Amino acid sequence: MSQFDHTAIDDVIHGRLRLGIMAYLSTVSPAPFTELKAKVNATDGNLSTHLAKLEEARYVRIEKKFVDKKPRTLVHLTSAGRAAWIDYLKRLQALISAAE
Question: Side-chain half-sphere of 22: how many Cα atoms within 13 Å?
Fold first, then answer.
């Protein structure tokens, strides 16, 4: 990996809300949709849109089920998502190191 290669930053993760989603899921997975929504300060629709992009990239998996006859959505960070997150952090660290 080159010291300075901003083009290698994963655009799927780099969006502000998706970055927050990935950061939170890297510490708490699975996370209930409502909890994740509160943590990243998003609306239902906005969070759903960004989760769809992460799901398309196979970084997250959405699980829908019923608990006591109430719908519950859990968001899981996949192994591919964790690997992409770690790679993203390493690439950011390389950019930071190049600036020092």
Answer: 29
